[in-house]
Design a protein that fits this description.
Elements: H1 7-17, H2 22-29, E1 33-38, E2 41-45, H3 50-72, E3 77-81, H4 83-86, H5 124-135, E4 147-151, H6 157-171, E5 177-181, H7 182-194, H8 198-209, E6 213-217, H9 226-241, E7 245-250, H10 262-268, E8 272-276, H11 281-294, H12 301-310, H13 315-332, H14 338-344, H15 346-349, H16 359-369, H17 374-378, H18 384-400, H19 405-411, H20 417-433, H21 435-448
Helix pairs in contact: 1-3, 5-6, 7-8, 7-9, 11-12, 11-13, 16-18, 18-20, 19-20, 20-21
This protein binds adenosine-5'-diphosphate (ADP) and magnesium ion (MG).
Length: 451
């Protein structure tokens, strides 16, 4: 979202949240103008006296910063400047209202594009429809709206959704899009509710309703979460009624989502459903070859065939096996033979071998699952996107190992025993009441202990 587009709302929110009088607002806040944006530096023009600049800097820098972050999600480094100094700032980026921001601002993986997506029998239909949807995003066809992509873990749903988003960003830059995982969406809604902040709720609505294409990944996670589900339902209706394209992914088709309410079920089925199934041998080979090519690596055919023959259900694991061999080869600087490959892949491929389940392994895998680092889980951070994975790690350490609470606390950054109990209880309760949490936990357990 562009801070320029939201500028008026931002200034008004500062007035509202900090209870500024009209005279203060009119004299100091309303005249502020964006002069330039350079990365995360935001240059703001103030009325033309040094005295005003000093005063605004002292009184209103922090309120402005906080509100901007609330509304745009971006933590800008704000610099107030006088008009006479404005000329000295190099125009790094012109302020264009219709142009999309670079892909990293959309939480898109730059490697997940149509170019790198290998088409096979398992995903042909999903791929074709995704491409049509991306091409026609300006005028979505009713029969493809919403597009509902479903399939098991690690089969390419996220890759395909990011491909659609990238395609639209580069070919239809005038379209405003949002890609969000339903976990992130849920956290945003929960945060807004917890803070009781109307402006935050409004910002969420602005963000997701004032757009042309909405992509929501892993919708199964919001099902059953009342407020989030309601918020999404209303957003869906607003966009759908305005003829905007919606793309949803899920690990199951709507009819198998047992706790799905009828109103969702019918809406999800209005447009088009496409599934992605497990790749056949040829597709597995093609994916491995593609990945080799992208990473500029070349293994013996025998090794690639060995992987393709032994890892069948999940493309993430397929890639994981290849990554492991590449890492090993870089580390040891030797050419990998089939024997070394078998040895290295023993834990992944041979179902009888056990990798000891330790708290360290759990922390590592939980962190990876949430795209965080183990250091983040051990850190002091209280931000909700870290707290929850950390609590899940506590819960799993208790359930999957014999470690004492003290030991779990130790491994998670030296936390005390009551913090650990609290964390475990939170997840236990959530687990007891939420199907989506149960699924999440089961999925992570499988990653920790695939047998
Ligand atoms: P899902 O969202 O269904 O769990 P992902 O989209 O995250 O799965 O895919 C898992 C991994 O497999 C990703 O690294 C992705 O790039 C890769 N992958 C999946 N399908 C394909 C494909 N058809 N071609 C190339 N890579 C793929
Ligand atoms: Mg995914």
């Amino acid at each position: 979202m562009l801070v320029e587009e939201k500028w008026e709302e931002i200034l008004l929110t500062v007035k509202e949240e900090y209870d500024l009088s009209n005279i203060v607002y009119e004299s100091w806040i309303k005249p502020l103008e964006i002069c330039q944006i350079d990365g995360n530096k935001l240059y703001v023009l103030v009325p033309p006296e040094q005295i005003a600049l000093n005063y605004i800097n002292k009184k209103y820098l922090t309120p402005l910063k906080i509100v901007i972050e609330e509304i745009t999600g971006i933590d800008y480094d704000i610099r107030f400047i006088l008009p006479e100094d404005a000329k000295k700032i190099k125009p790094v980026k012109s302020i264009a209202h219709t142009e999309n921001l670079p892909a990293e601002n959309y939480n898109l993986n730059p490697n997940y594009t149509f170019d790198t997506f290998v088409v096979g029998n398992n995903n042909k239909l999903a791929h074709t429809i995704s491409l049509v949807v991306a091409e026609e995003a300006a005028n979505p066809e009713k029969k493809f709206n919403p597009l509902f992509l479903w399939g098991g873990v690690g089969l390419g749903k996220t890759h395909l959704m990011h491909s659609i988003a990238h395609h639209i960003l580069s070919n239809h830059p005038q379209l405003r899009i949002q890609y969000v995982s339903s976990e992130v969406f849920t956290n945003e809604v929960i945060d807004a509710i917890r803070n009781g902040s109307n402006s935050q709720i409004n910002a969420i609505r602005e963000k997701y309703r004032n757009i042309d294409v909405l992509l929501v990944d892993d919708i199964q996670f919001i099902i059953g979460k009342d407020r989030t589900q309601e918020e999404f339902f209303n957003t869906f209706n607003v966009l759908y009624n305005a003829g905007k394209q919606i793309v949803i992914s899920s690990d199951k088709p709507p009819k198998e989502m047992t706790t799905l309410e009828e109103r969702f079920r019918s809406r999800f089925q209005w447009g088009c459903m496409a599934d992605i199934s497990s790749p056949d041998y040829e597709t597995r080979m093609a994916i491995l070859r593609k990945k080799e090519e992208m990473d500029d690596f070349k293994f013996d055919d025998e090794i690639i065939e060995y992987i393709a023959n032994n890892i069948k259900s999940n493309i993430r694991e397929l890639e994981g096996a290849l990554n492991r061999l590449m890492a090993y080869s870089r580390l040891t600087n030797v050419n990998i033979t089939i024997e070394t490959a078998k040895e290295q892949l023993e834990n992944i491929i041979n179902p009888d071998s056990h990798k000891a389940v330790t708290p360290e392994l759990i922390v590592e895998i939980v962190a990876e699952h949430f795209q965080k680092t183990p250091e983040q889980l051990r850190s002091k951070s209280r931000s909700s996107d870290i707290v929850r994975p950390r609590q899940i790690a506590m819960f799993l350490c208790k359930n999957m190992t014999d470690s004492s609470l003290a030991a779990i606390g130790e491994i998670l950054g030296g936390r005390d025993h009551s913090t650990i109990i609290h964390g475990i209880e939170k997840i236990e309760e959530d687990y007891a009441h939420n199907e989506s949490t149960q699924k999440l936990i089961e999925m992570i357990k499988k990653k920790i202990n695939p047998n």
